[in-house]
C-alpha cells in the first residue's frame, strides 16, 4: 500500500523559506507512470495546487507561486521536497503531498498533511 | 479560462440523489477528477475520467461530463457522504492543475 508522509517545521518566520519533505513508501518516485505533487489548504479555505515533479526532475508549478516555489526529487531516498521562499502569513496552510497520475493529473494518493504556520 | 466553478453549498435529503457540478473551459478538453474531504482529514480521491471510481469507493458515486461541465452524482446519499467535494483538472494550457472552489454537501 502506497504511503506518503510529510515532514518539516510547523512554524516558519515571515520572509524565511518554508521547507517540507514527502517520504514515499510502498512505491517508487522513479515510476514512469506518476508525477509527485504538493497541494495546500489555508485554514477554512479550499485546495490550491502548488506544483509537481517527475522523477527526471521535470517540473510544473502554479503560475501564481512560480517565482517562490522549488520542488525537487531525490530518487535515491525515495522522497521529494518543497521549498517556498519569502513566506508571509498568507502562506499559512495545511500542506499535502500527493501522487499525481500522468495524463489528466489525478491525485490518487495523499499524505495526511502538515500544518505550517507563518508567524514571528 | 483557468478556473473551475462550483456551487458553494448543496443539500440533499437522506437517501435521495444529488448532483454536484463543476464548470470550466478546460473541461471541454480534460476530464475532471473529484475529491471528498471531511473535517480534519486529507482529501480522498472518489472519481476520475469519464466515470471511473477508484477501488473502495461505493457505487452510489458516479461521474459524467458534458461540454464545459463535469458532474459528480451521489445516488442514495448517506449520512457519511456529508463532506466538502472538490473538482480538479488541468487548465486550458494543459500545463498546470487547478481545483474548483469546493462544494459543501449537507445530508439532511
- Supply Rg of chain A: 13 Å
Main sheet of chain A, how many strands, which sense, barrel? Answer: 7 strands, mixed
Structural class of chain A: mainly beta
Q: Would you tell me the structural class of the helices and strands of chain B?
A: mainly beta
What is the distance, rounded to the nearest whole angstrom, between the alpha carbons of the first and last residues of chain A?
A: 39 Å
Mean pLDDT of chain B: 96
Q: Spans of chain A of 5+ residues with little confidence (pLDDT < 50)? A: none
- Specify the number of helices of chain A: 0
> What does the overall shape of chain B look like?
globular
Q: N-to-C terminal Cα separation of chain B, in Å?
A: 35 Å
Chains forming the largest contact: A-B, 24 and 24 residues
Q: What share of the residues of chain A lie within helices?
A: under 10%
* Number of helical segments with 4 or more residues of chain B: 0
- Cα gyration radius of chain B (Å): 13 Å
Name the helix and strand elements of chain A from N-terminus to C-terminus, one letter apiece: EEEEEEEEEEE
Task: Describe what this molecule looks like in 3D.
- The complex is a heterodimer of chains A (120) and B (108).
- In chain A, 0% of the residues lie in helices and 52% in strands.
- Chain A has 120 residues and is mostly beta strands.
- The N and C termini of chain A lie far apart (39 Å).
- The mean pLDDT of chain A is 96.
- The mean pLDDT of chain B is 96.
- In chain B, strand 4 (33-37) and strand 5 (44-47) form a beta hairpin.
- Chain B has strands spanning 5-6, 9-12, 18-23, 33-37, 44-47, 61-66, 69-74, 83-90, 97-99, 103-107.
- Chain B is globular.
- The interface between A and B is medium-sized, with 24 and 24 residues.
Amino acid at each position: 500500500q502506497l504511503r506518503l508522509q510529510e515532514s518539516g517545521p510547523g512554524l516558519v518566520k515571515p520572509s524565511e523559506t518554508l521547507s517540507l519533505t514527502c517520504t514515499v513508501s510502498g512505491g517508487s518516485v522513479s515510476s514512469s507512470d506518476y508525477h509527485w505533487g504538493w497541494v495546500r489548504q489555508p485554514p477554512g479555505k479550499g485546495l490550491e495546487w502548488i506544483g509537481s515533479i517527475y522523477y527526471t526532475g521535470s517540473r510544473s508549478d502554479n503560475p501564481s507561486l512560480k517565482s517562490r516555489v522549488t520542488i525537487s526529487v531525490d530518487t535515491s531516498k525515495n522522497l521529494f521536497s518543497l521549498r517556498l521562499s519569502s513566506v508571509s502569513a498568507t502562506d499559512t496552510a495545511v500542506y499535502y503531498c500527493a501522487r499525481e497520475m500522468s495524463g489528466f493529473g489525478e491525485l490518487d494518493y495523499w499524505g495526511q498533511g502538515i500544518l505550517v504556520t507563518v508567524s514571528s | 479560462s483557468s478556473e473551475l466553478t462550483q456551487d458553494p453549498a448543496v443539500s440533499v435529503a437522506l437517501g435521495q440523489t444529488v448532483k454536484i457540478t463543476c464548470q470550466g473551459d478546460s473541461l471541454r478538453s480534460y476530464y475532471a477528477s473529484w475529491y471528498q474531504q471531511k473535517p480534519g482529514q486529507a482529501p480522498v480521491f472518489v472519481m476520475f475520467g469519464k466515470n471511473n471510481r477508484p477501488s473502495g469507493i461505493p457505487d452510489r458515486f458516479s461521474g459524467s461530463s458534458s461540454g464545459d461541465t463535469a458532474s459528480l452524482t451521489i445516488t442514495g446519499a448517506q449520512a457519511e457522504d456529508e463532506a466538502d467535494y472538490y473538482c480538479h483538472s488541468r487548465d486550458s494550457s494543459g500545463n498546470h492543475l487547478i481545483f474548483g472552489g469546493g462544494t459543501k454537501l449537507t445530508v439532511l
